[in-house]
Design brief:
heterodimer; A: 119 residues; mainly beta; seven-stranded mixed beta sheet; four-stranded antiparallel beta sheet; 0% helix; B: 109 residues; six-stranded mixed beta sheet; three-stranded antiparallel beta sheet
């Protein structure tokens, strides 16, 4: 059973917005630190955002080139992680993975959802 | 921002051989924060090693990690055809951003 299932990807025009979701199961979501990692077509992995759990204040961190445009959030009552993508650029085209982490590694990965930014 | 540089870019070896993959950090880091991932073609990445040398659940002991400071190594002994993949190192848990290396593509002839 896949512990993380993303959805919400699709085709969007430059400047547009999209919200990705990731539903978790099979582990204690409320304790997990959650991340988004993306992979542009034919390229490597790129970490883009993390949100800690409520016990440590749901602190968020972002990669520099998405900060101010992307927002990570979580709803522990729904075991769901979100990524709001605004002001999208063509270079944001990628498969977006959610990942549950410990404090030192990305333990669980979803299957990814494809975001295509194109006019 | 700490940069991770992996080498070689591509490695082509035969079944049964040993693969040595390198991950070099632009400044000294704690091995506690160094992880390795495997991504097979068309698949999701999978955690192999964390803390530079601890194997994740279900990872065979053919996979081992070592290193300290700026130089870390992933060794795969007795290569099998299913080891064909791209391998990434990542520094995770220190100060963000949690950068990945650019990856090493391992091809099994």
């Amino acid at each position: 059973e896949v512990p993380l299932v993303e959805s919400g990807g699709g085709l969007v025009k430059p400047g547009g917005s999209l919200r990705l979701s990731c539903v978790a199961s099979g582990f204690t979501f409320t304790n997990a630190w959650m991340n988004w990692v993306r992979q542009a077509p034919g390229k490597g992995l790129e970490w883009i955002a993390r949100i800690k759990n409520k016990a440590v204040g749901e602190t968020t961190d972002y990669a520099a080139h998405v900060k101010g445009r992307f927002t990570i959030s979580r709803d522990d009552s729904q075991n769901t992680l979100y990524l709001q993508l605004n002001s999208l650029k063509t270079e944001d085209t990628a498969v977006y993975y959610c990942s549950a982490s410990s404090d030192t590694y990305l333990k669980y990965w979803g299957q990814g959802t494809l975001v295509t930014v194109s006019s | 921002e700490i940069v991770l540089t992996q080498s070689p870019g591509t490695l082509s070896l035969s079944p049964g051989e040993r693969a040595t993959l390198s991950c070099r950090a632009s400044q000294s880091v704690s091995g506690s924060y160094l992880a390795w991932y495997q991504q097979k073609p068309g698949q999701t990445p999978r955690l192999l090693l964390y803390g530079s040398s601890s194997r994740a659940t279900g990872i065979p002991d053919r996979f081992s990690g070592s290193g300290s400071g700026t130089d870390f190594t992933l060794t795969i002994s007795r290569l099998e055809p299913e080891d064909s993949a791209v391998y990434y190192c990542q520094l995770f848990g220190t100060t963000p951003p949690y950068t990945f290396g650019q990856g090493t593509k391992l091809e099994i002839k």
